[in-house]
Write a structure and sequence with these properties.
This protein is mainly alpha-helical and 299 residues long. Helix content is 77%, strand content 1%. The longest helix has 35 residues.
């Protein structure tokens, strides 16, 4: 969606919209692109019950544990999951505003939708990174991880969560003000996080393969296997996003003189963000014992 905010270098459009930071409405809102936006809206509508269910489970837990429990006693990974769910809801509203702005030809409403998407894109990626780092510490550095579960670690986590939101908003502001192109932010953010995910995956895998003190390779701790599975699932979805973003960025640079293709490629690449929205909510419900298959709970 943010890719559409950057004006393609088409000389025919410069004369009509050279003073506007938004793309022209006609080539970027054809019937095909409209169908893509509608299909994405339908996908978001199908995901909405999942997000609302996670929020409901969290709300019930919040009422039971107390008002300050999310900031004091809840686990790091649960807090990260709740933040990702709120970001996904943010993205749903962003898609709606973008579609509404395109239909009504209100560039300010369209830009508001793109801004919401930008906060979601950066924030979700960073929270996935924090989740992988949390699992990495739990397996590879258990002593340090136990310290992080104390009050000092909880305070550090709360500050980190606030910083992620601030960084996401700052990145979005830089893109909106055209200080930094979105493609650069996209490449830097996804490249850094992808390397971090690979490092975490390999480190946890080595910790599982090694026998370690007091245990053999045949008696691997199941919690560490689950930690590895979590990291691998997140890594897989983020690599899918990384590859699709890189391919779409290359194709958009090649087709930058053709606004229709430029916008069509940008909207098509948004589909590859959907799997990453499923990971943490489903893993959260699995930990809470809320997932059922044929009437049996998955634990």
């Amino acid at each position: 969606m943010l890719n559409q905010m950057e004006q393609p270098s088409n000389s025919s459009s410069n004369s009509s919209s050279s003073s506007s930071p938004y793309p022209p409405f006609v080539p970027c809102f054809t019937s095909e692109i409209k169908s893509l936006i509608i299909s994405l809206s339908v996908a978001h509508a199908l995901l909405l019950p999942l997000f609302l269910y996670v929020i409901t489970v969290g709300y019930q837990r919040w009422r039971k544990d107390g008002f300050l429990a999310p900031f004091t006693t809840w686990s790091h990974i649960d807090v990260f999951t709740y933040n990702v769910v709120f970001l996904d809801l943010f993205n749903i509203f962003g898609t709606f505003f973008y579609f509404l702005g395109a239909v009504t030809k209100r560039s300010d409403v369209q830009m508001a939708g793109s801004g919401m998407f930008g906060v979601f894109f950066s924030g979700q990626t960073l929270f996935h990174l924090l989740t992988c780092m949390e699992r990495y510490l739990a397996v590879v550095h258990p002593v340090s991880y136990l310290r992080l579960k104390g009050s000092a670690g909880v305070r550090a986590r709360n500050v980190t969560v606030g910083c992620v939101w601030m960084v996401s908003i700052l990145i979005m502001a830089l893109i909106v003000q055209r200080v930094i192109p979105f493609v650069i932010i996209n490449v830097l953010l996804l490249s850094f996080t992808s390397l971090a995910f690979v490092f975490c995956s390999l480190s946890v895998l080595c910790a599982l393969i090694g026998p370690g003190p007091g245990r053999t390779r045949n008696r691997v701790d199941q919690s560490k296997r689950r930690a590895l599975n979590t990291i691998l699932i997140i890594t897989g979805t983020l690599f899918l996003r990384f590859i699709s973003s890189m391919i779409s960025s290359i194709l958009q640079n090649v087709t930058s003189h053709f606004e229709y293709l430029y916008c069509l490629i940008g909207w098509s690449s948004v589909w590859f963000l959907v799997p990453s929205s499923l990971v943490l909510p489903l893993l959260f419900l699995q930990r809470a014992g809320k997932l059922t298959v044929c009437g049996a709970k998955i634990k």
